Amino acid sequence: AQSVTQPDIHITVSEGASLELRCNYSYGATPYLFWYVQSPGQGLQLLLKYFSGDTLVQGIKGFEAEFKRSQSSFNLRKPSVHWSDAAEYFCAVGMMDSSYKLIFGSGTRLLVRP
Amino acid sequence: GAGVSQTPSNKVTEKGKYVELRCDPISGHTALYWYRQSLGQGPEFLIYFQGTGAADDSGLPNDRFFAVRPEGSVSTLKIQRTERGDSAVYLCASRPEHTDTQYFGPGTRLTVL
After folding, report:
1. What tens digit of pLDDT does each residue of A97-109 get?
2. Beta-carbon separation of B43 and A102 below 8 A
3. Nearest chain B Cα to A90, which residue?
C-alpha cells in the first residue's frame, strides 16, 4: 500500500540556519511527489513537486527537494530559514492513476528560533 | 483570481445532528477532492469528483458520509448522525483538467459536541 512517512514531528532551527525535513515514501512505481506548507488558519500551499527528470527540484520561497529512488526519499531543504517559514510541512505522494489523489504524511512542525 | 472557498469556516454541532459543508472550486476546474485532517495528522483522502460524478469514493469512512457535485462545480459534503470522532478540518481541493496540481481551500473546522 502507498504510504508516506515523515519521521520528525517537530523540528526547531535558528533563523538563518539551514533546514532539512525528511520524507520517505512507499509506492510501487516512480511516484509523483509533493511538498505542501500549511500556516495557521491557511490552506495548504504547494511548495514544489517532482514527476520525472532532474531529481533536484526547486520550489517557491527558496525551498528545494531531492528525489532519491534508492532511499525512497524526497527530503525538503532550505539553506537559510526565515522566521516566516515557521509552519507545518507535509510531504505527499500523488497517485499515478487518473485521480491524482494525494496520500499525505503526518507532517513536520517547524519552529524558528530568533 | 479567486481560489477555492469553503463555507462555513467553522461549524459546531451536537452529536447525532446532520451537517453540510460546501466547497466552491476554482472556476473551470473539472476535478474536485475532499480530504479530512484530524488534529496532529496529515490530510486523508475522502472522495474525488471528475465533473459531476464521484470517480473515487474509497476514502469515505462509512455510509454516514456522502458528497455531491450536481452541476460539476460546487460540491457539498454531507454527514449524517454526526459523531464526536467526526471532529476535524475538512479540506476541499480542485484541479484543472490535464494537470497534476491540486489547489486547496482554507477548510471547514467541524466540531461535534
Report:
1. 878 899 999 999 9
2. yes
3. B42
